[in-house]
Amino acid sequence: MQKVWKKDSKNLLKINSLVFAVFLIGISIVVALLVMIFVRTPPSYYEYTGFTLGTYCRIVVSSKKGSKNLAEIIFNELDRVYKKFDPNNPSSVVSKINSSDDWIDLDEESFVLIDAAMKFSQITEGAFDPALGNLIKLWGFDRIAEKVPTKVPSQSEIDEILKHCGVVRVELDSRTRRIKLNDGVKLDLGGIAKGYALDRAYQIAKEIDPKCTGFIEAGGDIRILGPKFGSRPWVIGVRDPRKSDSAIGYLYLTEGAVATSGDYERYFIVDGVRYHHIFDPKTGYPSRGAQSVTVIARDATTADVLSTAGFVKAQEWEYVVLEYPRLGGSVLLVDGDGTIHRSPSFSVYERPR
Ligand code: AMP
Ligand code: MG
Asked: Lower Cβ count inside 10 Å, N or C end of the chain?
């Protein structure tokens, strides 16, 4: 009888340990699930830098479809757009257009970009002008990779070259998708191509992975892919135009784009006067009245164009601050004296959210 009891108690012990083990495994699974739900590991970011668009580009991206691969696809797209529209690349579309005084057939992408540039010229009252190729060449700001120029052209050279500049001398036929440059005019899409490249790269990234996050930066212009860790804003410094290593403010962006045009990017100084690469199409001289203009917009093309145009219109700040938000841009201007002006909508992005 005692023997039987001993056997039973042994069995009972075995059953109890089994129940306990199952209970432990169950608890562990529940804890693991709770950790997965409440403490989601933040996505890790892959960073890629490379030289294209005549500047350093930085891609910071996180994607479940493969961050490294997506970063490379984004970079290749930036480079494709650059090579296609670079007037210094002999096989670019712009070189082909610039070397002819006859009608030229355009592919759809080139037509859409040039058409957009012409429309931006209209709505910015000519401050943005994609047909300043000859003027930019006269001043020596056409070759990005080479040294900055050192000579100021004469007034008669400027007067003469302005006869061969400007969108009024460009004919674009939307029916046949063709373009014709009159009076030896030359296109220069340097004020829009960077923004357009950022938008194209954004679109391609989103087609591959709509949930990817991060940002794409080309020489200070930025297109946000998505919020940091899925919900937090990216903090972007606005460069002090006179001190390359300090910021005059910070922006908090979860979407959209920001672009800055500055007189510090490419310039030379003669007799204490700074001559830079952003031209007033009316005078043929580097535009006066701003050290930098920063624009936040829904897309990088708008931000890029409006920062260049806003720079040209700096002396008409009252107009810019009223009109540019209507065109889709929030503006910050550092004027010639270094005083900062901002449109009310710009301040919204300067508050941490
Ligand atoms: P960004 O740095 O974006 O302001 O672009 C400056 C570039 O745009 C210059 O290097 C020129 O290629 C071109 N550009 C200069 N002045 C103008 C202008 N008034 N309108 C359009 N493009 C311009
Ligand atoms: Mg620009």
From this structure: N
